[in-house]
């Protein structure tokens, strides 16, 4: 485990921004982009790198697990306390982005069709 937590680069921040503009929750976008870079990370590292609070990371993980985008494993800790959970994406960033782009393009086509029908119905076309 690498404990040097790198913050997101400008390019990665831009990817986060664009993902959230397409409708993906911003915190989820941050987690996905960070995990795509880190490979695998514990909650605390994700919090630091993505600049999120623990509850925000937990909520993002809940959705990501439901969608099947991440898997978790427990790391045994020395001594007492709850084991640490380690997270990893189940697919790469390209696959995730590709799926989101496809969904948005279909949404746009449907909206364009609806707008065209609306214009015809009110006599604009």
Automatic annotation (TrEMBL):
Keyword terms of this UniProt record: Coiled coil
Keyword Transferase: no
Top-level taxonomic group: Archaea
Family matches, as InterPro entries: UCP037373_trxn_reg, WH-like_DNA-bd_sf, WH_DNA-bd_sf
Annotated SUPFAM superfamilies: Winged helix' DNA-binding domain
Annotated source species: Archaeoglobus fulgidus (strain ATCC 49558 / DSM 4304 / JCM 9628 / NBRC 100126 / VC-16)
Protein name (record): ArsR family transcriptional regulator
Keyword Hydrolase: no
Coiled coil feature spans: 94-121
